[in-house]
Amino acid sequence: MPRLNELRMIARVAQMYHVEGQRQAEIAKHMRISQASVSRMLKKAKQEEIIRTTVVAPPGTYGLMEEKLREKFDLPEAIIVECAEDRDGAIMSRIGEAAAHFVETTLQTGEIIGVSSWSETVLKMVDNIHPMKSATAKYVVQTLGGMGAPGVQTHATHLTTRLARITGAEPLLLSAPGVAQSREAKQVMLSDQYVRETMDVFSRITMAIVGIGAVEPSRMLTRSGNVFSDRELAELGEAGAVGDISLRFFDADGKSVATPLNERVIGMPMEGLAKVDRVIGLAGGLSKTQAILGALRTGVLDVLITDKFTAARLLQMVGEDVAMPQDL
Known about the structure:
With 328 residues, the protein is an alpha/beta fold.
């Protein structure tokens, strides 16, 4: 019975390590074997299924739905937040809190952060981030110009500079409107030295934080003076647009939608965003569900942070049998 004797010792070593909390060096001394032998036995314990790992999801987390989102959309990471009601304001707050924790936890020293600075949800994230004590970023780059009424454009500056201060980074502002009056006006603005210096850093961004918008302008955009005319909105709808990331519009299949509006946008293009190592999308709510589905199909996102109601709708839209969470 040599194999049984071997398994008995392996089980004992596994018990000492995983149940009794002893270190490998302590086990080696107690058992009169080398630490390398202890390490091999622990590995063998997994192979023989003497050790079986079970993850018990805490209440208020949605591991199964997150797994389905990752599988369905080839998404490296998905975070689904608990929310008491399917209402935009509450959803943005919960997503902002979760995104703040994620960025705080995963930020690497020297990162160059690109931020889509016209998103209420991104602003909620910034409001919830604690000042960094260890890892600090190098730059926080504004990836979309200001837009709308000049008095409201300070929002983009505030969001970018605040995030830079919290992360110990230098802010790089995009001192131009998000949408120029014409294609020719855009070319003039792109020739500005400071605009070019900021845009030259786009290719070095290591982490981009973006909101996902529906075609219908958000409250923030509307309050800013709304850069879109009814004709432009109609053109986007006719072209099949369902949403945007930093005013780069896409259809339900995630394909880019080209309209004259795109030629006037001053900001990071979708193809540039696709090259960023980590793109974190923050969005939720009924009105944005179709836009989020399209955004996932672009293949640009690496992380989606959304709410439980929106996650259930997304999975239902791709044929998954998922029960819709009830409002608490």
